[in-house]
Model the fold of this input.
Amino acid sequence: MTTPVCTSASDAAVSARQTRAHTRPYPSFASYVRARQPVLLRTARSLTANPSDAEDLLQTALAKTYVAWERIEDHRAIDGYVRRALLNTRTSQWRKRRVDEFVCDEMPEPEPAGGEDDPAERQALHDAMWRAITRLPARQRAMVVLRYYEDLSEVQTAEVLGVSVGTVKSAVSRALGKLREDPELDLAR
Done:
């Protein structure tokens, strides 16, 4: 018994294979990219500071080259074409990122409020606070440092020092009272 064969189906399969062979345009472009990608990527990296931006730049330049592949007459000079595309693409990116400046009557930044944002003032306050903490008795100093510099809870501080939670609460309260009365910290208030 023979199986009937539909000739139109086999013709369609042959035609589909031929179409796939023809829809893979520019096999020489794919081989060019595989062969020259490391060199071109180094060129792109020399144009940008970020390796990811270099990869994006190269991809854009190669896309432009792919579109123009049929029009390029001398494929021996293709590296120069791609490098020019890299440079032109990077220049376009620079132009797009340009920041326009406008003259205005008032400064948009607010004035700093009384030294709050001054790093020198913050450092002076930090130094004064640390000197005041070093003048506390050793046990109070340890509790203040654990509670406020190490950010431990009262329970954790009590466990570390081997004392009760009530002892931590009262010692920290007395230490904060002494810090409030410290004459060097009066200037910071």
Summary: The mean pLDDT is 80. The radius of gyration is 36 Å.
